[in-house]
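Reagents: none. Just compute today. 5-formyltetrahydrofolate cyclo-ligase.
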Amino acid sequence: MTKTELRILYKKLRKQLSNADIEEKSLAIANGVLALDLWDKTYFHIFLPIEEQKEVNTEFLLHLLSGKDKEIVVSKSDFSTRKMTHFLLTDNTKIKKNEYNIPEPIDGIEVPSPKIQVVFVPLLAFDLNGNRVGYGKGFYDQFLAECHPDTIKIGLSFFEAEKSIADVFENDVRLDYCITPEKCYPF
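Predicted 3D structure written out:
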């Protein structure tokens, strides 16, 4: 299937999830992350979910990272440049939803992309080769390209892998892992 076809399909599948499904699956995903060998890292980038899009609830992961004293980084998106600016999430960070309902920090201590060691990546679908389908704006591909080559990229998905995505581009950045409620896919 193409990215466009997968976007349509997985948005539809997500709409069918109840709030209880989202909570249960998000907790299972967080538990799956616990098994990964990445706890020697310090800087973890996490997305704050767009609830209206029924994204993975990363609150469980936030508690996990906080409990392990990790530096948590969240982003603010600039839709005119399609770039993301990254900020340390602290007790003083004020979060506000933008016009697309994306929760974002208003401001804070900026963290450069190369300093981030682990990135949890939102997605709609992914394949057995570590390719992902997002919303199609390219924010994460651009951000991940700015990260250090050793940065660990982890997709979070409610659904299992597709066999392959038909229209992968050369600038698409592949994942290192994808965690679903059922299993961990290493790439």
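The mean pLDDT is 95.
Action item: order primers for follow-up constructs.
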